[in-house]
Specification:
This protein is α/β, with parallel strands linked by helices. It has 5 domains: 2-85, no CATH class; 86-301, 3-Layer(aba) Sandwich (Rossmann fold), CATH 3.40.50.300; 321-418, no CATH class; 432-627, no CATH class; 633-777, 3-Layer(aba) Sandwich (Trna Endonuclease, Chain: A, domain 1), CATH 3.40.1350. Helices cover 49% and strands 18% of the residues. The chain contains 26 helices and 28 strands. The strands form 8 sheets. Strands 17-16-13-19-12-18 form a 6-stranded mixed beta sheet. Helix 12 packs antiparallel against helix 13 (272-285). The longest helix has 62 residues, at 516-577. The chain starts with a helix and ends with a strand.
């Protein structure tokens, strides 16, 4: 304000006018951006904060006298604000405190959302001042990923384990965080953008929430004009929810307002007459019929209702649980086997917390720098399992800095040996074969190739690295199996992980070794052709499958903004026709914004449609070779089958835990006794659902497909328990996507085709035919 007065005094009013024009042309950030788009700015700020800084620099008064009058009004408002702060009375915070201290919600976790970082920090200070020090987690867009993850972990941790009772979060910081474990949420301020309101509610009010009901408290000053408008909106949504007896209304708030400008209604509330009109407008616009119609449109578009739309989320949860359970085993085996190769040794229990000790001077140097990013108490303490508290241990996994440095050190020292190859044994092989490990990639061209004014879709050929910069968009390790007659077929990487090395094999004793050089050259050609072509095809198909949804998302977002501009144009047009001198200029700006929006929509849609053609074949190289020998050693077969069964157990347990069950491993006598069962219960897992329902689950695993066998004891238990007994057969355990097939009451549904040595053998086809719905696999 003072700067504006000085500009006018100095005769630079035109400069002030130009600045105001630029500011007036700036769209409202909160109207055009969702919370997920409110990403972190450089310097640790949320994107909307830069917009607010620019907006606060604006003035309305055009003359020096009016500027001085506006300055006096601002000073008066500041004085009132300081007086309120000095009084120490904040009715909104007092209401928040009453909600948090309600006996109904004792020892329950709360999420408190606000749009602004300074409000979030204020709430943390006030809550800590009430005695909640150490019990309040805070996340906002200015935190880096490690700080944000630490705060989320603090909130996830149970209260008895020192976890936070409350999470205060800005909209931007809440993006991408799964908060379904919490069922109480407070909106300390209610956003004017309906899409932001929908996103907030969706943080906890979506598929995966186990608690019923979910409680969302909106703090609104209902006696103010603005508050009456917001309260009308929220009350109407609740009435629709009660009428439909469905929470779906909270999932479609943004779409209900696609053709309604909530901002215009709130601006109308600046006067008493406008507030009354806005309340009537909202009350007449939102109806239960709208929610039903929206649900029907989405069902027609996507081919299913709430249940079908929740299936991808369920599958994603299962996939995450499978990954979480399988990954630690792979990492543990890798670290314990690789550490000695880079002059390190594992000290302690690899299944718990362990250290890495150097076997020679400076042996730890490759990983020391990566450890510096962690708290001092965590240095030298590692685990392969995700810990509840990360302040005193480092979780080793792909993408984690220490683990990545460990891998880089191993490659730097032994990469050439991997290319020279090694011997392995396969107890299920009938003849020797070669296994090759190759790295292939898909790259993105900067844009389409122009030829005579037309776009040309690139072929599979390599991106031209001489005159075009390329970006790797997908890089993958692929395995291939090559028989002695040269036949090549894709083979999962996991196949090699199940095999054991065979040391001290003289290469000259294996005829296939003498043919390896020529066979390897053929394998390189196959990777350079077939493998790359398949990867590009898969990439393009994946992009094309997502196109309809992405195009629809862009179109709906732009249409939502277009509807707002139309409503604003109508509102400003009425003012212009009424003789408002400034309305004509505003109307021209709105028309310009409409044209820019239309052009931007077309550009974004063209860009998305072009994406499948931009992915082309990148580089490829074979990074490792193995010569695999058959073996008749029964102990080797037993070891291999045990590994397959372990994978199957992890897949079955992950499936149950993803659905919210508590799972007990009872596969060994000591584990069965710990669960209160006899030494040989006749099944592997005891799963207890949140409802108290119990499942006795027998798990069988196969590297590929084939018969599964039940022992006499298992078959007898299936006969006794009937509906309470389940067979979980996991096929393709030696692939990236193990396939789970579940059969309830296998005694009634499966007919054993033979009895051999007190076991019942059941074919894969019979298991599939009796399965509960479709088989489930990682995707």
């Amino acid at each position: 304000m003072e700067e504006a007065i000085e500009l006018v005094r100095a005769g630079r009013a035109e400069e002030l006018e130009q600045r105001q024009k630029r500011l007036a042309a700036t769209p409202d950030f909160f109207e055009i951006r969702t919370a997920d788009e409110d990403a972190e700015e450089a310097g640790g700020a949320e994107s909307h904060e830069a917009f607010e800084e620019r907006a606060l620099g604006g003035v309305v008064a055009p003359t020096l006298a009016q500027l001085r009058e506006e300055s006096r009004e601002v000073e008066a408002l500041l004085a009132q604000a300081r007086s309120l702060v000095d009084d120490g009375e904040d009715s909104k915070f007092e209401k928040l405190r009453a909600v948090l201290r309600s006996a109904e919600f004792a020892r329950e976790k709360f999420i408190v959302f606000t749009e602004h970082r300074d409000t979030a920090e204020f709430l943390v200070r006030r809550l800590e001042g009430l005695g909640f020090t150490g019990q309040v987690a805070l996340i906002h867009g200015g935190l880096d990923y490690r700080e944000r993850e630490a705060q989320v972990d603090l909130f996830r941790r149970p209260l008895d384990a020192g976890g936070a009772n409350y999470l205060v979060a800005t909209d931007a910081a809440g993006e991408g965080i799964n908060l379904q474990f919490c069922w109480l949420m407070v909106n300390y301020d209610v956003p004017w953008n309906p899409a932001r309101l929908e996103q907030r509610m969706g943080r906890i009010h979506r598929y995966g929430q186990q608690h019923d009901p979910v409680v969302i408290v909106n703090l609104v000053a209902g006696e103010t004009r603005e508050g009456r408008v917001l309260k009308t909106l929220l009350d109407k949504l609740e009435l629709i929810r009660q009428e439909l007896q469905s929470d779906k209304v909270f999932d479609v708030v943004g779409r209900l307002f696609e053709n309604v400008s909530l901002k215009d209604y709130l601006e109308q509330a600046a006067t008493e007459e406008g507030a009354t009109a806005a309340v009537k407008g909202i009350d007449g616009l939102l109806t239960a019929a709208q929610v039903r119609a929206l649900g029907e449109r989405e069902q027609a578009r996507f081919g299913g209702g709430d249940v079908k739309s929740s299936l991808p989320a369920l599958q994603a949860a299962i996939d995450r649980e499978q990954y979480r359970r399988l990954l630690p085993g792979y990492v543990r085996r890798f670290v314990t086997a690789a550490a000695p190769l880079i002059d390190l040794r594992v000290d302690g229990d690899p299944d718990g917390v362990f250290g890495l000790a150097q076997k020679r001077r400076r042996g730890l140097d490759p990983v020391l720098a990566a450890m510096e990013i962690y708290p001092a108490g965590a240095h030298g303490c590692f685990t392969v399992y995700r810990p509840a508290d990360r302040s005193d241990v480092i979780w080793l996994h792909p993408g984690e800095p220490v683990f990545d440095r460990f891998c880089a050190a191993l490659l730097a020292r032994h990469e050439d040996e991997a290319r020279r190859g090694a011997f392995f044994v396969d107890p299920h092989a009938g003849a020797p074969y070669l296994f090759h490990l190759a790295r292939v990639s898909v790259v993105r061209r900067p844009g389409p190739i122009e030829s005579a004014g037309h776009e040309v879709t690139p072929a599979y050929g390599r991106a031209d690295g001489e005159d075009r910069r390329v970006e790797i968009i997908e890089s993958r390790l692929v395995g291939l199996r090559q028989d002695g007659d040269g036949v090549i077929e894709p083979c999962p990487l996991e196949h090699l992980l199940l095999l054991r090395g065979a040391p001290n094999v003289p290469p000259g004793s294996v005829p296939l070794a003498r043919m390896a050089h020529g066979l390897t050259a053929a394998a390189r050609e196959w990777v350079d052709g077939d493998a790359l072509a398949r990867l590009v095809d898969e990439h393009r198909a994946r992009i094309e499958r997502s196109l309809p949804e992405r195009l629809d998302w862009i179109a709906r977002g732009c249409d939502h903004r277009t509807a707002e501009l139309i409503a604003r144009r109508q509102h400003v047009g009425r003012k212009a026709r009424g003789g408002d001198a400034g309305a004509a200029a505003s109307l021209a700006k709105i028309k310009d914004e409409q044209r820019r929006l239309a052009a931007d929509k077309d550009r974004r849609l063209r860009q998305v449609r072009r994406e499948p053609s931009l992915g082309v074949a990148g580089d490829c190289e074979i990074v490792a070779h193995a010569l695999v020998l058959p073996t008749a050693d029964t102990e080797e077969r037993r070891r291999h089958d045990t590994q397959v069964e372990e994978i199957a157990m992890q897949i079955a347990q992950a499936h149950e835990e993803a659905s919210g069950a508590v799972v007990h491993d009872v596969s060994r006598p000591e584990l069965a006794r710990r669960a209160g069962l006899g030494d040989w219960p006749g099944f592997d897992l005891l799963s207890v659902a949140a409802t108290g329902d119990r499942r006795a689950i027998e798990v069988k695993g196969r590297a590929g497909t084939g018969d599964v066998e039940l022992s006499e004891n298992e078959w007898a238990k299936a006969c006794n328990l009937r509906d309470g007994y389940w067979l979980y057969a996991v096929y393709d355990c030696a692939t990236p996507r193990p396939r789970l097939v579940r059969v309830r009451d296998p005694f009634a549904k499966l007919l054993a085709k033979s009895r051999v040595f007190s076991t019942y053998a059941i074919s894969a086809a019979s298991v599939q035919a009796a399965a509960e719905g479709a088989s489930e696999g990682a995707s």
